[in-house]
Hints:
Elements: E1 3-10, H1 14-26, E2 29-36, H2 39-48, E3 53-56, H3 65-74, E4 81-85, H4 90-99, E5 103-106, H5 113-199, H6 205-234, E6 242-245, H7 246-263, E7 267-271, E8 277-280, H8 282-302, E9 309-317, E10 320-327, H9 357-368, E11 372-378, E12 381-387
Parallel strand pairs: 1-2, 1-3, 3-4, 4-5, 7-9
Antiparallel strand pairs: 6-8, 9-10, 10-12, 11-12
Helix pairs in contact: 2-3, 5-6, 5-7, 7-8, 8-9
Amino acid sequence: MPQPLRVLIVEDSELDAELLERNLSVNGYELQAVRVETPQAMQAALCRQRWDVVISDFVMPHFGGLEALQLLKESRMDIPFIIVSGKMGEETAVAAMRAGAHDYILKNNLARLAPAIKREIAEAENRRSRREADEELDQLRKSLEARVIALVADQRQKDQLLIQQSRLAAMGEMIRNIAHQWRNPLNNVALIIQNVQLELGYDTAAMMQLHRDIRLAMEVIGQMSQTINDFSDFFHEEKEKQRFSIVTAVNSAVTLTAPAIKSQEIRLEIETKSDVTAFGFKNEYAQALVNIISNARNACMERCAVNPCISITVTEENGRSVLYVRDNGGGISEDVLPKIFDPYFTTRGPDRGTGIGLYMAKVIIEQNMAGRLTARNVKGGAEFRIEV
């Protein structure tokens, strides 16, 4: 059966074009052929329909083979371009191939034309198949990227929700700490005011005592006001990473947890180096430390540790800040240890813990600050290590 072939012939000689058509017909092609000899005619033919092959003379009075090749390339159509010329030197032929021609054939050797067309059409089909496969892969890649972006955004939203939940849980703990921390100062203020009332009935020396009592009352009130400032600073949202002192972050965390630790008669030991710094979010670092200290406090209380103690050590290793929090609460079960940083994992029961404190600490240190948070058992208890 004759094979259909749509061929665009760029040739100024009508006779030569007829010879090409006859050769292709003899070799089993059913032709749909159009001859053009000007750039405008070729441009119109390319826009009018799809061609299987372009056959072009190399030298014509007003339009050359290289110009025709450039016109085809500018159309961005992947169509085989074969030069058929009466006379063409080897260097000229090589230059044409380098410019993008797929083959060149001398007019006195047209026996090569049909096999060359068959070969180049097959190559063009292979190129189209590869392009389509590449486009499908590119679409798949873009689809996967979009899914990953959506999943990451969803995970970030969940992480933000967990952060908010953790902050709310921490706020509740802090409110209890505030109540405990204010109870004794308020009692002291009440006693001072009672003394003022009693002293007003004595001699003039009582006026001096009155001034001293008032000054003492103002100092106590000042301490209470500073406590409020400490809590406000803790919840201040930081927009950009900054270099901060680890000791400052430790002091902030200790200020927030000290009342509960003292009320449960847990000894707190702190060993720090004042010049150790890190780059990140100081308040988030302090929040992670609060979660770890609270976990150590709970372990000491629930295990009824003898002479309960929490120690905090700040040092520097290999140019990075390192903080250790160690307790003597009996350690972590080996089957539980790999899970302690999982979200919503808790051994305390739903009525006593949310299971997000240590998870959020790890998110803050590792995702937000590019650090590392690990835990291990040591003699008599557990040790958490923060490296930033």
